[in-house]
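By way of example, we now present a protein record of this kind:
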Amino acid sequence: MPAVRTQLRSSNASVNARKAVVSRVSIVGEEIQDLADCKIHYPSNEHERKTFKTRDGKRVTPHQWAVYDFTRTIPCGRVTTYKDICVALGQGSPRSVGSALRNNPFAPFVPYHRIIASNLYIGGFFGEWGTGVNARGGQKNTGVKCNRKMEMLEQEGVRFSVDGYLVDGSLLWVGRG
């Protein structure tokens, strides 16, 4: 699992400064945690992207780059759906988005944990779908990975019910590409 980077803010910070920071990250106690705030090289120009290979030696497809670029725009403390990413990109399907994120070599810089199902269910994570009794995917699916996704989102201020559904629908972010 990639390392989590934590930033600390002094408790003397002004309310206005905190409000400005909250638009980008969430506050947990006195800690601000944006799990996508890390030092990972992310190819930004066409030449770098054409020559980039994952640890497995695979190239990243144009669709995957589009998914990763869009996913990077999701603000900390917000979530969006697999379907909304397809609509914003004008290509692919929710499954193709899930597949791209499952193979995301830039985690957590590309915040793959901020994507949920259209019915506001926690959705999938690392090839698992759901938590507890709602877990799908055969005997291999313990729900542990999706529980980790909920923990990551909770660190960013996004809460889910015991059944795995988004508690506050106002945190749903619908960006447009």
In short: The longest helix spans residues 144-155. The chain has a mean pLDDT of 79. The helical segments are 15-22, 46-51, 62-71, 82-89, 94-102, 144-155. DSSP finds six helices and seven strands in the chain.
